[in-house]
């Protein structure tokens, strides 16, 4: 594999910060090398510096999106951080039955979080209106999310009975995979959103999952992103961040219910 020099790595640090607000520490040098290395061969360039020049030339918007996708994709899985889904269940159960209960998965990646949310809402609010919107900066992971097709080794956190109710088990050439039921897939909306830019018209939400993304931002970017997101959270709404993340010195617009769970004042 072609090595990436310190100066080339610095170029990509600036690139992904300007594109997505993500701060890559020096410890991520091997990650950048590994994720982008195959693109050098695909684009027939000899170095990371040459690849960076290709991206900056404006000759290949598709390749620019490829680079953003590769540098922003993070692994997720179903029902990650179960206590958050317990809180979601309680919020959805207590909400009025005659209005749609809306949830935003703001850094949705490949869709496991969004579909986990949808399963809980269908379980808690059968026959009542609910909506799930999931967003990500990466077009590639959004395509995966819309397909709803996953490896079956990602099922360790599924609640009892959910697999049979909401998923189809692959067989033959698709053995070892699962497919989210079409009717459930159709109830989740996926769209491309850069949290580091002004947000589109999404409406307001009862719950926002903003998990495991703030750790990639510096403090100033965290403040701006959280401020944008909170504009989309209704008064009294619930904001959930990753268990390794903190809102200390980021915002005073919410009160902490528990580590990683916050309430916007009514």
Characterization of this structure:
- With 266 residues, this protein is α/β, with parallel strands linked by helices.
- The protein contains ten helices and ten strands.
- The mean pLDDT is 92.
- It has two domains: 6-72, Chemotaxis receptor methyltransferase CheR, N-terminal domain (Chemotaxis Receptor Methyltransferase Cher, domain 1); 82-263, 3-Layer(aba) Sandwich (Rossmann fold), CATH 3.40.50.150.
- The longest helix is centred in the N-terminal third of the chain and has 15 residues, at 6-20.
- The strands form two sheets. The chain has a seven-stranded mixed β-sheet, with helices on both faces. It has a three-stranded antiparallel β-sheet with strand order 3-5-4.
